[in-house]
Amino acid sequence: MNPEIDEVIGHIGDVLTDAQKKRGVLIHAFQQIQKEQNYLPEEELIRLSKKLDIPLSDVYSTATFYKQFYFSPRGKKIVRVCTGTACHVRGADKVLDKIKEEFTIDEGETTEDLSMTLETVGCIGCCGLAPVATINESIVGEIDMKKLDLIVDSLMKDEEITGSADEE
Ligand code: FES
Q1: What are the chain's domains?
Q2: Which residue's C-alpha comes closest to atom 1 of ligand 1?
Q3: Could you tell me the mean pLDDT of each successive run of 10 residues in the chain, 168 residues long?
Q4: How far apart are the CA of 88 and the centre of ligand 1, in A?
Q5: pTM confidence score
C-alpha cells in the first residue's frame, strides 16, 4: 500500500482492504479539489492517479460513481429549479424556461462567464412554497412572474437574492 494513503487514514487502515483505503483517500481528495476548484479538472485526476499509484480508469470510475462530483467548471451561483410534483403543478416549467431563455443556457449547463449553473432537482421538501428554486444555499419560494424577474435581475447583477424562504 502507498505510504501516503496509510498516513491519511491512520489506524482505520488496519481493518480496510487496499482497495477500500484507496477509494476512501480518493473521495477525500476529490472533495478537496472540488472545494478549491469547483470541479474535478482532468489534470488533477491524472496527478492523483500518478501520486497514489491508482489507474486513471479507477480514479474516474470512483469519481463518476458519486453524483456530487463534477467534471466541468461550475458557475459561481448554482441555481436549482425544483421540478417535483407540487412545483411542477405550480409552474416550475415557467421558472425553468425563463431562466434558460434569459441566460441562453439549458438545464445542466453553465454560462460562459461561469456566473451561473442551471440545474433541476426533485422535491426539496418545501412544497408549501411551490414553485421553489435554490440559489446556492438559499431557498426561494412562491416564485411568481414578478419574483422571477427579480431573481433573473439579481442573478444578472450578481446580487444576493432577496425574499428567500429562509428569511421569511
Ligand atoms: S415539489 Fe418542489 S419542494 Fe416539493
Answers
A1: 3-65 (no CATH), 77-167 (3.40.30.10)
A2: 84
A3: 63 68 85 92 95 91 92 93 97 96 95 95 96 95 95 87 50
A4: 8
A5: 0.75
